[in-house]
Amino acid sequence: MDALARDPSLALRPRRLRRGRPLRFRPALPGGAFGDVFAERRLGGRFRAVRRMVAALLWTLLAIPVQVVLVCLPGRGKVAFARLYHAVLCRLIGLEVRVIGTPARERPVLFVSNHSSWLDILVLGGVLEACFVSKAEVGRWPLIGLVARLGRTVFVSRSRGATGREAVEMRRRLEAGDSLILFPEGTSSDGTRVLPFRSAFLATAGTARRVQPVSLVYDRLGGLPACRRDRPLFAWYGDMNIASHFWRLARRSGARATVLLHEPFAPALLPDRKALAAETWRIVSAGAAALRQNRPAEPLPPHLGGQA
Fold first, then answer.
1. Is cis: bond before 108, omega within 30 of 0?
2. pLDDT on residue 36
3. What is the pLDDT of residue 160?
């Protein structure tokens, strides 16, 4: 009664409002492995990684003799099987691929894409029926070089003396009806931006009937939107080792890559290869930025000065 006389609001206050000691929660299992759900777990995912690596190796060894036979035969069977090989490989390593847009139907097509990882080969190879243009060093890698050659990859070097010969080979492949996938950045990036496109890589673009810009972003990890700190798990650049990089990625689950296929256009609608490099870079970088920021993305049209 004395408390009510002093302050009537005290009667509505719970008796145990304050605690002498703060609440402390302990993990259900001993040890620090469950203390932080975002921390790297040294033992987590090892079985998953081994299973994925073994499955990828067995599928590759099975596909090599099939592709050897198809390369010797006429027709587009070798192109279709190469696409199937890359698509299955993405599934085996636990990488989901989402495609926005449709590939150009008029062949040959020069697909121009950003480049951040060796995973780009698997993702784009499983979406597009086309051959890659890659640096000459890849052709000398064990097993990977053999797979690249069976995929009819066009190898280019950085020496000036071979530039003309390599341009002739790319032009010959386009004239034969083969579509090509080109990475005009010239190298892989850290995945947070698109490097400027080199116009020299687009010297043979006039031979293609259509040029189609492509934006590729790895936007999911663990089923959640990938953020900036997740980029090194996908991006492969600098002096990174491909084996250790694959091992770290194969231990994780819920990874996804999104391929945004922009509207194709005839390369003759732009005045020169510098304008073509600038316009394709604008489209690819804008699409990649939208995907990295988890914004709704759709194929972008080119700016051709009012021409269709």
1. yes
2. 44
3. 55
Q: 132, 136, 45: which is closest to 86 by C-alpha?
A: 132
* Model pLDDT, residue 244: 86
Measure the CA–CA gap between 113 and 235, rounded to whole angstroms: 15
DSSP H helices, the chain, are 2-6, 46-72, 77-92, 119-127, 144-150, 163-175, 231-234, 242-250, 273-292
- Tell me the CA distances in angstroms from 2 to 12, 13, 137, 257, one per residue in order: 15, 15, 89, 69
- Confidence (pTM): 0.82
Positions of the chain with pLDDT lower than 50, given as ranges: 3-4, 29, 31-39, 306, 308
Report the alpha-carbon angle 131-137-140, nearest 5. Answer: 90
Domains of the chain, CATH where assigned: 50-292 (3.40.1130)
Cβ contacts of 178 within 8 Å, gap of 6 or more: 79, 108, 130, 131, 152
Do 59 and 128 form a contact (C-beta atoms < 8 A)? Answer: no
Kindly state the tokens that stand for 38.
């975002």
Amino acid at 72: C
Residues 6+ apart with CB under 8 A from 278: 197
- Gap between the Cα atoms of 127 and 30, Å rounded: 46
Work out the angle at residue 186's Cα, subtended by the Cα atoms of residues 183 and 191, and round it to the nearest 5 degrees.
75
C-alpha to C-alpha distances, 304 to 119, 231, 297, nearest whole angstrom: 32, 33, 21
pLDDT, position 164: 65
